[in-house]
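explain this:
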Amino acid sequence: MANRGRRATGGIPDVGTPTGYVDGLLAAWVSASQDGVLVLDSDRRIVYATPAFCKLVGRPLDRMLGRDAMTLVPERHRQTALTHQAHVRNGRSELLQDVTVRPDGSELETEGTGTVLDHEGKRFLVFTIRDVTERQQQARQAAALAQAAATVAGSDSIEAVLDAISEFALVGTRALAAWVKLRDEDRVAGLFGAAGVPDEFRELLRSAGCAAAAHHFQEALASRRVSVYGDWRQQLERALGGTCPLNLPWQAGALAPLLQGGEAVGVLIAIYREGEIPYAAETSFLLALADQAATAAANARLLAAAREKVALEERQRLARELHDSVAQSLYAIQLGAKVARERLDGTRPVSPSRSTMSCGWPRRARPRCGR
């Protein structure tokens, strides 16, 4: 009892009783945990959150107390969150995967566990939550790259490949939309793929309008990396000479060059919500996707060249056959004309051994004297 009221070692207060000591220890552990802890009452209202959770969701505790926890969840994910909470109430212990929205509109992928706590006749739900956004994104990026490689290797349609790569760009990043455009040159001119864009913007991509990005090609080629422009919407509209038909709340753009043999053969573009720019991991992922798109473009060039060669060989074969057929027809006509003339002139038909091997017409027989 002599030490009552003194500070215990390690910064934990000595509250004087075993129960008080344990409570203080638990409180210190919960506050120091890097995982966020959230406590809800039976009405799903927030009654406590650790500093780690407040930092995770970007909100101070005093602005969350008493609020419905569903306000922290995007509307499209709320039914899933309610199902998870029901499972916790029923005593089911499982790893929960959820999504949390921050005040700026950005979303975090979270996972954690929940348990029921009965205290002083009241029931509470206690959740331990951690941010797994980066881990999940890396997993999606790895899967997307594998699928992109498989698509490039297994598809004969270059536009289908470019469409798929654009879709993978959305899977592995927070981009709103993405598209791939090949340079308007040689055999694959004008080809493109897109995801998340309206039809009218696709028509723009088919035209020379997408050449608005052309002045960025050399910079991207020189840097060998993704170029990020916070005002790319304004740059695109200036190049187009009017309002961009892409009716989405976007602003920034990331441009990844498609490099083939040291030459920029196209560009992969991903656009982001207003106030957002791509993370470093996202730009690396976009560059890897651009490499896949460049491989697809190279394959398309080889395929187009092979088809041209086959078409040329076929035309040459048809030309030879046509020449032979015409030669035979002319020869038959020539032979028939010889025979007909000989009969009209009253001469004896020339034997095939003498006439059919001659390329000239037979001379007319001279009339006999006295006629």
